Amino acid sequence: MSHGSFSDDDHGDDNMLSEINMIPLIDVMLVLLIVFIITVPVMKHAVNIDLPRASNEKELVKPETVRLSVDADGAYYWNEQKLADDNALQGHLAAAAAQDPQPDLHIRGDRAVRYERVAQAMAAAQQAGIKKIGFVTEPAR
Question: Got the DSSP string for the chain?
Answer without folding.
Answer: --S-BSSS--S-GGGBPP----HHHHHHHHHHHHHHHHHHHHHT------PPP---SPPP-PPPEEEEEE-TTS-EEETTEE-SSHHHHHHHHHHHHHSSSPPEEEEEE-TTS-HHHHHHHHHHHHHHT---EEE------
